[in-house]
Specification:
The chain has 13 helices and seven strands. The protein has two domains: about 140 residues, Butyryl-CoA Dehydrogenase, subunit A, domain 3 (Up-down Bundle), CATH 1.20.140; about 110 residues, Nuclear Transport Factor 2, Chain: A (Roll), CATH 3.10.450. Helix 1 packs across helix 3. About 60% of the residues lie in helices and about 15% in strands. It starts with a helix and ends with a strand.
């Protein structure tokens, strides 16, 4: 196959291959290195014998990345702290890469996986590569490759859950501070434009009112909540107002993408008794 034509075909798959390499390695510069090695291997191969060039290149990039991960583990190196490749910010693979951006928390847990676990998880869960194709790359059976991905998935999901809880606490803490300070502008940044404030019948009887929209909810809380304190409500970050050591009102928050989308004011004693309320010291 003509080298110019071969280079053109390689470029057709570049963005996809870069996404695969970046997802596996977590380093833009190392992903570039993996693609350079893949091109060298393609240029030396008998390209006329390659039936599925995209699949062949994906396999080659995966093998190169696996080798790089194994060397990194052996040398106990940390991945380079660089940014994602510019092509992925605007390229067609951005939904795959940016839809679950490689944040610090995810990088930490990925780096704790074995290279075969990490590769199996990324190829299958992020790029839908069948386990039959992953198996020869990691030198395992299809069943073993599936188990590697499953084990990695559980650890990644656990890390995400912790990160989500931490992020929710940050948002609730910021909401409480802004409410006490009467910082209306800050409250608006923490509330989703379509946020909903709801109240049960017991809360309504004490004068609480429902509200819809960021401005209405911010007006309700601005300069208030001075008697509320942070609490874990069934494991989630929230607020509670107590009288004589007894919870009288629970502020149950729903947080999505870093913003509050709903607040439920609960005052029914029976409902509160069923909740697991923890007050950090």
């Amino acid at each position: 196959m003509d080298e110019i034509f071969l280079a053109q075909r390689f470029e057709e798959y570049r963005t996809h291959l870069l996404a695969v390499a970046y997802r596996i390695l977590g380093s833009g510069s190392e992903a570039d290195d993996a693609l350079q090695e893949a091109w060298l291997r393609l240029s030396r191969a008998d390209s006329e014998e390659i039936e599925n060039l995209g699949g062949w290149l994906t396999t080659v990039v995966a093998r190169v990345c696996l080798n790089m991960l194994q060397v990194r583990k052996t040398r106990r190196e940390q991945p380079l702290a660089d940014h994602e490749p510019a092509e992925l910010v605007t390229g067609p693979e951005n939904d795959v890469v940016l839809g679950d951006s490689i944040g610090l928390a995810l990088l930490v847990v990925l780096d704790r996986l074995s290279p075969p676990e990490r590769l199996s998880f990324v190829l299958h869960d992020m790029f839908a590569v069948p386990f039959d194709e992953i198996a020869p790359i990691v030198g395992k059976s299809s069943t073993a490759a599936r188990q590697l991905a499953s084990r990695a998935r559980r650890r990644v999901q656990g890390a995400r859950a912790v990160a989500d809880r931490d992020r929710q606490r940050e948002v609730v803490d910021a909401f409480l501070a802004a409410s006490r300070d009467g910082d209306f502008a800050r409250l608006l940044t923490l509330l989703d434009p379509e946020v909903v404030l709801r109240a049960d019948q017991a809360a309504l009887a004490t004068g609480a009112a429902a509200a819809v929209g960021a401005r209405a909810v911010a007006e309700t809380f601005s300069g208030r909540a001075k008697g509320a304190r942070f609490a874990l409500i069934d494991g989630r970050a929230g607020l509670v107002w107590m009288v004589g050591g007894v919870a009288r009102v629970v502020f149950d928050f729903t947080v999505s993408d870093g913003r509050i989308v709903a607040i439920d004011l609960l005052s029914d004693a029976d409902t509160i008794d069923l909740m697991d309320l923890q007050l950090p010291s």
